[in-house]
């Protein structure tokens, strides 16, 4: 039996070509469809627009112009000043010259006595020229009055010495340093104490308070104040 198909009529022979042509045609139509643009017809006519016409707009006034201040008033006319003549006479001050005339006679001036200022100073006992005289040392030579003063001072302390009972009970002992001043009239002033106990200091002040009045010390023949210091020892037996 013979086949019904004609071998020359085989459609599958060029199928690849047909497919490529169709794909290219579809791609072209799709691209044109995407790029296709349409414009709406506008009903506005440019002839109706008159550019030469000016728009009249009312501009609102936002701020009023300030009026300039009035000019200052003219200055007042100066008052007329009456000149009054001064009838009072002014006395002139005459300054006399201090220059001396060669013909003037200068009188001699008597010598002026200048009083020496007396300085109120304290002269220590160790350097004073004339030491204070303790009662009982008046007949001693000046060169021995210093040692006589020391002896009489020690005798006075031994004579009036009394150990405070409260200091004995407490067992307090030590040395009290006493300083006083023999004033220009020979009296004892400015007594100061420094010791280990107030009771001992009080006893030392009592002993110095019983010192007699002395002949004051002298420096260059003038009475001066003489400070003097001495230790008083309190020792328990």
What can you see in these coordinates?
- It is elongated, with a radius of gyration of 70 Å.
- With 237 residues, the chain is α+β, with helices and mostly antiparallel strands.
- The protein has four helices and five strands.
- It has a domain at 142-234: 2-Layer Sandwich (Fusion Protein Consisting Of Minor Coat Protein, Glycine Rich Linker, Tola, And A His Tag, Chain: A, Domain 2), CATH 3.30.1150.
- Strands 2-1-5 form a three-stranded antiparallel beta sheet, covered by helices on one side.
- Strand 3 (218-219) and strand 4 form a beta hairpin.
- The protein has helices at 15-35, 145-160, 165-170, 198-209; strands spanning 174-182, 188-194, 218-219, 222-223, 226-234.
- 23% of the residues lie in helices and 12% in strands.
- The chain crosses the membrane at residues 15-34.
- Residues 67-77 have a biased composition (Pro residues).
Number of helices, where a helix is a run of at least 4 consecutive DSSP H or I residues: 4
Estimate the global geometry from the Cα principal axes: elongated
The CATH architecture of the domain at 142-234 comes to 2-Layer Sandwich
* Major sheet strand order: 2-1-5
Uncertain spans, ≥5 residues at pLDDT below 50?
A: 44-55
Transmembrane segments: 15-34
InterPro entries: TonB (IPR003538), TonB-dependent_transducer (IPR051045), TonB/TolA_C (IPR006260), TonB_C (IPR037682)
Region (Disordered): 56-77
Keywords: Cell inner membrane, Cell membrane, Membrane, Protein transport, Transmembrane, Transmembrane helix, Transport
């Amino acid at each position: 039996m013979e086949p019904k198909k004609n071998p020359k009529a085989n459609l599958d022979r060029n199928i690849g070509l047909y497919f490529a042509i169709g794909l290219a045609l579809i791609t072209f139509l799709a691209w044109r469809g995407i790029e296709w643009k349409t414009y709406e017809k506008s009903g506005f006519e440019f002839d109706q627009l008159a550019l030469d016409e000016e728009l009249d707009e009312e501009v609102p006034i936002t701020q009023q112009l300030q009026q300039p201040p009035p000019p200052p008033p003219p200055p007042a006319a100066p008052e007329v000043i009456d000149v009054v003549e001064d009838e009072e006479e002014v006395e002139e001050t005459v300054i006399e010259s201090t220059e001396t005339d060669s013909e003037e006679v200068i009188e001699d001036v008597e010598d002026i006595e200048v009083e020496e200022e007396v300085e109120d100073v304290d002269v220590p006992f160790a350097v004073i020229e004339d030491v204070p005289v303790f009662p009982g040392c008046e007949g001693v030579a000046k060169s021995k009055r210093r040692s006589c003063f020391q002896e009489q001072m020690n005798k006075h302390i031994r004579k009036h010495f009394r150990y405070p009972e409260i200091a004995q009970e407490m067992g307090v002992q030590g040395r009290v340093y006493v300083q006083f001043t023999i004033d220009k009239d020979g009296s004892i002033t400015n007594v100061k104490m420094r010791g280990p106990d107030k009771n001992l200091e009080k006893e030392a002040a009592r002993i110095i308070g019983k010192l007699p009045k002395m002949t004051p010390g002298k420096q260059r023949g003038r009475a001066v104040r003489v400070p003097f210091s001495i230790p008083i020892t309190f020792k328990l037996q």
